[in-house]
Every structure is written in C-alpha cells, then in structure tokens.
Amino acid sequence: MLLIICSLRQGTHEVCVLSLDQQNALRDQYRALNPGWQPATEVYANLVRTSLRPSARVLDLGCGRGGLVEQLDHPLAQIVGVDPDWQSLREHRLPLPRVAAHSEALPLADGCVDVAFASWLLEHLARPSFTFAQLARVLRPGGVFVFITPNRRHPLSALNGLLGRFNRLQGALVERFYGRASADTFPTYYCANTSAELSRLAAAQGLTLGELHAIPDPTYLAFTPALFRLMTQFEARLPADRQLHLVGCLRRPE
Fold it and tell me: Looking at residue 3, what is its pLDDT?
C-alpha cells in the first residue's frame, strides 16, 4: 500500500510518493511503541505460510500481476492464479498457471484446493455470498481460505466506501496520489468486512471462521510526521474490533 506526502513549494502543490522504506521506517517506530505489533501484511503472509504443506494445491484469488505469491517458497505448478482482468494476467511476474474468471464462478473442480488466499479482494465483492459458495465448493475438506481486507468498522473505510461508489473519482484520486493506474481501481462495497458478516457468510456455506485479527496501522495516512503522530493517537483510542485491517482464515470442516 503506497502512502503520500503532500507539501507546498513555491506556491504549488507537490505530491510525493512515500517509499516502502519510509513506510517501513514508520512501522518500525510504531512497533517500538507497541511491542509485539506486526503489520497486517506480515500476519497475513505468516497465516498463508503456516497453512501450506509441500503437496498443497493453492489458489491465488484475485492474483493480479503478483504479490504474496512471489514471496512463497512453493512449486508454481501447484498454484493457480484467478483474476477477471486479462491484462493483469498477461503481465503476471511469475510463470504460474492462471485463468481469467470471477470469484463468483471459479472454473475449478470441486475439492481441488488445499489453500486459497486473497489480498484486498473481499471489499470489492458486491455479492460475497456467491464467492463464499465457490470457496466452499473448491476447498477440500480441511482446506483453508486466508484473507486480508479493510475493516468496515474503521472510520476510514466509510470514506473509502463512499469514494468507491464514485469509481471515476476514486480512480482519479488514486492515480494522482498513489501512482496507480485508475484502471486498476475498483468499486468498494464492504459487504464482507466485519466479524459478524464474515461469520454469517461462512456459516451459510458450512465454513468456519478459524481466526480473525483486527490490526491497526497508522502509516496508512502518514502524509507527514505530524499526521503519523495524530494517526497513532487516533488508532490507540479505537476499540479492538474497529482497527483498520482484518486478517483471517476460513476453514472447511474435515
């Protein structure tokens, strides 16, 4: 996730992208203030890794051009990437099997997946029950689905959800401030983004919510050092179940 620093120089508004090194430096500061804290992406990656076995068949749902799959030490022949965007699949950075499809209609056989994972996907599902039904179908008994997604109960999600209803405006803002093409920006609905909604959607398909972590991260809006301090104080005052990111694991019973 990219961050920005906004400044005024000679009467003009300048936008600078905060590098990953700078973002990680801020996270190190936050970790020093909160021993034991881990960024949501680390918790997510660890959940996926601990779920993998050497023989596991893996589904990267909403794979895009890469991401976590590039950090996994797992045979590419045992991983399939699924994404509705042809261009992203063509530009994928790994030579893994991949197919263009929506999560509501996965072109996979029943019970063929041991571990599925999705990065920043659930917030974009207008009808998450269809996707959860597909996951329940393709997961083998004992299989798991690991996800990372924003928490709808966090105040920033309300703003992002509002912008998501105006996709062209959201795309223009993301392209200007985050350096990401507007074509890679999708509407947000937040229909599977609270503990209660996830539990309900899982139970309806015979899945169980194995674990769920709500994780703060004040670097999300660390435009300046002052904003970083403000966001740190803001996050500290939020209840545990309203923190910014949700990382969890759904399981299909044996």
Answer: 30
DSSP 3-state assignment of 150?
strand
Q: What burial letters (b/e) apply to 173-206, b meaning 16+ CB within 10 Å? A: ebeebbeeeeeebbebbbbbbbbeebbebbeebe
Which residues are 215's β-sheet partners? 245
Rounded-to-10 torsion of CA 100, 103, 109, 110: 180
Task: Please state whether the predicted TM-score (pTM) of the whole model is above 0.70.
Answer: yes
**Which tens digits make up the pLDDT trace of 110-139?**
999 999 999 999 999 999 999 999 999 999
Q: Percent of the chain having pLDDT more than 70?
A: 81
Rounded to whole angstroms, the Cα distance separating 101 from 27 reads 36
User: What is the DSSP code (8-state) at residue 84?
Assistant: S
Q: What are phi and psi of 233, to 5 degrees?
A: -65, -40
- Please provide the distance, in angstroms rounded to a whole number, between the alpha carbons at the two ends of the chain: 36
